[in-house]
Amino acid sequence: MTSEFELIRNHFVRPTPQAILGPGDDCALIAPALGMQLAITTDMLIAGTHFLPDTDPCQLGWKTLAVNLSDLAAMGARPRWALLAGSLPEVSEPWIAAFTDGLFACASYYGVDIIGGDTTRGPLAFCLTAIGEVPIGMALRRDQALLDDDLWVSGQPGLAALGLAHLQGRTVLAEPLLKPCLAALQRPLARVELGLELRRRGLAHAAIDVSDGLLADLGHILQGSAVAAELFVAQLPPLPTTADPVLARQCQLAGGDDYELVFSAAPEKRAEITALADHLALPLWRCGLVVGAAPGQLTLLDDQGRVVPINEKGYDHFG
Ligand SMILES: Nc1ncnc2c1ncn2[C@@H]1O[C@H](COP(=O)(O)OP(=O)(O)O)[C@@H](O)[C@H]1O
Ligand SMILES: Cc1ncc(C[n+]2csc(CCOP(=O)(O)OP(=O)(O)O)c2C)c(N)n1
Ligand SMILES: [Mg+2]
């Protein structure tokens, strides 16, 4: 029988070169580098709500960290530390070992030390707190979009929600589309380099990551910045041609779980942003404009300039 402390020692504790004091005492001790401030964020992943209970534990470990690093990415912060609280229904050591393999693979990919946490018995759930650094006063925020800014989105939002629809039997995806959709859902990437470069190169005014859906999260920028926007359907990333087009559009606009970044930028920065996309080998789509209508208002327009009704709503745990 493995005790709580053996479990922690055997699976959750690895070297933490970036901490003054790592796991083992009542608190970890960390200090930001000179001239930096801390960015801190937390998100839960609950079985049945955020992931299917039979999800591969290695991918789940990766995702638990990656979705939190996505919030740091959206603020242009460099991820450095994380704490993991886990509630586990029973001690299955192979399951835990696979989970921590994925978790630490993600941690080493993004240069993060796991500096502490908590381990209890209970329904399968995780809560991760990620801490990053950003030069004082330089974080990208939701509330800084300006009139006449372009709106940009990275990558291909919608794939994760299509993957979930497939796993839930709401659609059938065939290869070669299935693989990237399942990867987007189960092993998402946090757009850390994109956030860092947008901040370092001074390219973005406002940014957010897409966890609840493109329209919903863009809505947070609009509300926060007290501006309105027009989004051009024809300039969004092309939909995968082999998926049901109605479902694919729905997933793109409101699926969530994408962890792409949406950002606003001055039109003079177009060439520099295109160069950044090449540098990162990550498509960046200029798909909208900040306009001066009622704060928070989002209008979707087709290629003829006609208004497209919005029926989609983003992911809302209580909506
Ligand atoms: N229970 C809570 N107590 C305090 N702040 C919260 C709570 N839940 C959410 N928030 C804050 O509300 C904001 C929006 O939360 P959320 O939609 O989860 O953001 P995100 O998509 O970036 O994870 C965040 O700043 C978050 O810290
Ligand atoms: C079993 C299952 N059901 C539904 C989803 C879809 N889903 C769950 S939570 C969520 C939105 C993001 O989660 P949230 O807790 O709102 O994260 P935050 O916005 O705080 O980052 C989505 C799209 C999923 N991934 N798995
Ligand atoms: Mg959250």
The largest pleated sheet is described as: 7 strands, mixed
Instruction: Tell me the count of domains.
Output: 2
Order of helices and strands: HEHEHEEEHHHEHEHEHEEE
Strand order of the largest sheet: 6-8-5-9-7-10-11
How many helix segments? 9
Number of strands: 11
State the fourth-level CATH superfamily of the largest domain.
Answer: PurM-like C-terminal domain
Global outline: globular
Question: Which CATH architecture of the largest domain would you pick?
Answer: Alpha-Beta Complex
**Mean pLDDT metric:** 97
Q: Mind telling me the C-alpha Rg? A: 20 Å
Summarize the amount of helix as a percent range: 25-40%
Alpha-carbon distance between the two ends: 43 Å
The structure class reads alpha+beta
Pfam families: AIRS (PF00586), AIRS_C (PF02769)
Binding site for Mg(2+) 2: 43, 71
GO molecular function, one term: thiamine-phosphate kinase activity
Binding site for ATP: 117-118, 142, 211
In brief:
With 319 residues, the protein is α+β, with helices and mostly antiparallel strands.
Descriptive account of the structure:
The protein has helices at 4-12, 57-74, 93-110, 159-167, 178-186, 192-200, 214-225, 245-254, 270-280; strands spanning 36-46, 78-88, 113-121, 125-135, 150-154, 206-209, 228-232, 261-265, 284-291, 298-301, 307-308. By secondary structure, it is of the alpha+beta class. It has 2 domains: 4-135, PurM-like, N-terminal domain (60s Ribosomal Protein L30, Chain: A, 2-Layer Sandwich), CATH 3.30.1330; 150-308, PurM-like C-terminal domain (Phosphoribosyl-aminoimidazole Synthetase, Chain A, domain 2), CATH 3.90.650. Strands 6-8-5-9-7-10-11 form a 7-stranded mixed β-sheet, with helices on both faces. A 4-stranded mixed β-sheet has the order 1-4-2-3. Strand 2, helix 3 (93-110) and strand 3 form a beta-alpha-beta unit. The protein starts with a helix and ends in an 11-residue tail after the last strand. Bound molecules: adenosine-5'-diphosphate, thiamine diphosphate (TPP) and magnesium ion. Adenosine-5'-diphosphate (ADP) is lined by residues 43, 71, 211.
